[in-house]
Specification:
Largest sheet: 5 strands, antiparallel
Number of strands: 18
Family: Belongs to the FAD-binding oxidoreductase/transferase type 4 family.
Strand order of the largest sheet: 5-6-10-8-9
CATH class of one domain: Alpha Beta
Keywords: FAD, Flavoprotein, Oxidoreductase
InterPro entries: Alkyl-DHAP_Synthase, FAD-bd_oxidored_4_C, FAD-bd_PCMH, FAD-bd_PCMH-like_sf, FAD-bd_PCMH_sub1, FAD-bd_PCMH_sub2, FAD-linked_Oxase-like_C, Oxid_FAD_bind_N
Organism: Rhodococcus indonesiensis
Strand content: 15-25%
Protein name: FAD-binding oxidoreductase
CATH topology of one domain: Uridine Diphospho-n-acetylenolpyruvylglucosamine Reductase, domain 3
Helix content: 25-40%
Distance between the termini: 46 Å
């Protein structure tokens, strides 16, 4: 079945919320926020918006790679954050790229960068477009003749598999499903499943230091990289394939998380794992949230390394798992390709029981995929549908957005309270009625990664401004309370003010120096991570 990517919202047109699912969603929203105006506001016709004409024209040699089609430009104007979706619904596309450029080889990327450096054209690398922090938005500072969105999905494919070392060479433009399909015949998996998996690329994961679905162990893309190849305006850069090295600062670490400001990731060798055969999972309920946090910390510090250790607070458990539990629900899962995991699961459950946890249903053990029937299954299904549900509510004047952080265990209580206070005060100022939810997306021996959600009734036409005020307030609270401005959503343009305060000043100077050497014309994603370079073309 052919599926059509939505230009304005998440995913595909065919998978949008409708029918019984939509009616149930509206009923839940009405129950959560009585009196909310849930009038639908459908997206406008792109061709009626009158996008500004392209300010630049590519040289004849590159023209076949370029598109100025209004639909193409509109789809590459924003990422897929709440504020992006609402601006699209409002027809607010004030910063579209002048051209969408689709290279399919490194040579073509070099040619595009050469032209853009000479012509003073900004280049915004674009993978699947799932950024939620303004990382792919052509909203650039500086003196540029125009902006191109460099769509890298042409650099696709699993190109080589080394089964002995359990690694694969993969094109940076490969979307998650195609990546796993390419690995499946080998019995191996990258095992990296962010919520955006279906609509994001390997290069995007690397450029943003993506975090996967799994709560512990090798869940960050950083840990799965064996080597990377990058094309920069100053020339190509490729690290050596090694299981580990102490040879000075790591080249890969320079480019991981650089968000396309230092170069274009074209391919990478990635570490793989056998596909799991044994699984076990359990849903543990608590009467007290403090006890639930203590139980989660005990599991995180036990060395058991669960695949999932996700604590849902009472609001999150009700909104996204349909479960009423006064102290929250801890979702546990274990898996292995080598051995049954019953003993690990049983020990984790024992730790939870020692902290007052109860199991409405016994733990499940299987050697197959299993069937999701309890709170864990309902939450997992909801997790995959969340972006679609968010879009449906955003079109009905709801403020539905998330933000995440990480902190050490000793400051979590203070941080959570500070975030709740800041969010509720911002909601009050915005005149919006809402609730704040929290879940742990990842846990470490030394701290959790709290993932907060806001569900509020807004005013149509004002929800972006309302959210921006809330976002600023909670970002200040996160930084002040000792958290990071982001755990796995990158910096982009939206997090930049707080990132500048979080990073050490000497490191900022080093990053700026690296930018000047690798991108002397300052054309790559200007304004992300570092300030644009002075206006000076760089001939080759």
């Amino acid at each position: 079945m052919t599926r059509t990517r939505s230009w304005w919202g998440w995913g595909t047109v065919e998978d949008a919320v409708r029918g019984a699912e939509l009616r149930e969603l509206i009923a839940r929203a009405s129950a959560l926020l009585p009196g909310a105006d849930l009038t639908d506001h459908p997206p406008p016709d792109v061709r009626s918006l009158g996008l500004p004409p392209a300010r630049i024209a590519a040289p004849d040699s590159l023209a076949p790679l370029c598109s100025s089609d209004p639909m193409d430009r509109a789809a590459h104007t924003h990422g897929r954050a709440f504020r992006d979706v609402v601006r699209n619904l409002l027809g607010d596309l004030r910063h579209p790229p002048d051209l969408v450029v689709r290279p399919s080889s490194e040579t073509e990327i070099v040619d595009v960068l050469d032209w853009c450096a000479r012509a003073r054209v900004a280049v915004i690398p674009f993978g699947g477009g799932s950024s939620v922090v303004g990382g792919v938005e052509p909203r650039v500072d500086g003196d540029f003749a125009g902006v191109v969105s460099l769509d890298l999905t042409g650099l696709e494919g699993v190109r080589e598999i080394d089964p002995t070392s359990r690694a694969a060479r993969i094109g940076a433009g490969t979307l998650g499903p195609a990546l796993e399909d390419g690995l499946r015949p080998s019995g191996l998996t990258l095992r990296h499943f962010p919520q955006s998996f279906e609509f994001s690329t390997l290069g995007g994961w690397l450029a943003t230091r993506s975090g996967g679905h799994f709560a512990t162990g090798y869940t960050h893309i950083d840990d799965l990289v064996e080597s990377m190849r990058i094309v920069t305006p100053a020339g190509p850069c490729e690290s050596r394939r090694l299981p580990g090295s102490g040879a000075g600062p790591s080249p890969d670490r320079l480019f991981l998380g650089s968000e396309g400001t230092l170069g274009i990731v074209t391919e990478a060798w990635m570490r793989l794992q056998p596909r799991p055969r044994w699984r076990a999972d359990a849903s543990v309920h608590f009467a007290d949230y403090g006890a639930a946090v203590a139980a989660t910390r005990a599991v995180a510090q036990s060395g058991l390394q669960p695949a999932n250790c996700r604590l849902l607070d009472p609001v999150e458990a009700f909104v996204n798992a349909g479960t009423a539990s006064p102290g929250g629900v801890l979702l546990l899962a274990f898996e292995s390709a080598d051995h049954p995991v019953d003993a690990w699961s049983d020990r984790a459950v024992d730790l939870c029981r020692e902290h007052g946890g109860t199991l409405p249903e016994p733990p499940r053990h299987s050697s197959g995929d299993g069937t999701d029937t309890d709170a864990a299954g309902r939450w997992r299904s909801s997790f995959l549908r969340m972006p679609y549900l968010r879009d449906a509510l955003a079109a009905r004047s709801m403020i539905v957005e998330t933000f995440e952080t990480a902190c050490t265990w000793d400051v979590f209580d203070t941080l959570r309270e500070a975030v709740h206070d800041a969010a509720n005060e911002a909601l009050r100022r915005a005149g919006a009625t809402g609730v704040v939810a929290c879940r742990f997306s990842h846990v470490y021996p030394d701290g959790p990664a709290p993932y907060f959600g806001i569900y509020a009734a807004g005013r149509w036409g004002s929800t972006v401004a309302q959210w921006d005020d809330i976002k600023a307030a909670v970002s200040e609270a996160l930084l002040t309370a000792g958290g990071t401005i982001t755990h796995h959503h990158a910096i982009g343009r939206d997090h930049r003010p707080w990132y500048d305060r979080q990073r050490p000043d000497p490191f900022a100077a080093v990053l700026q120096a690296a930018k000047s050497v690798l991108d002397p014309a300052g054309i790559l994603n200007p304004g992300v991570l570092v300030d644009p370079a002075p206006s000076r073309p760089t001939p080759r």
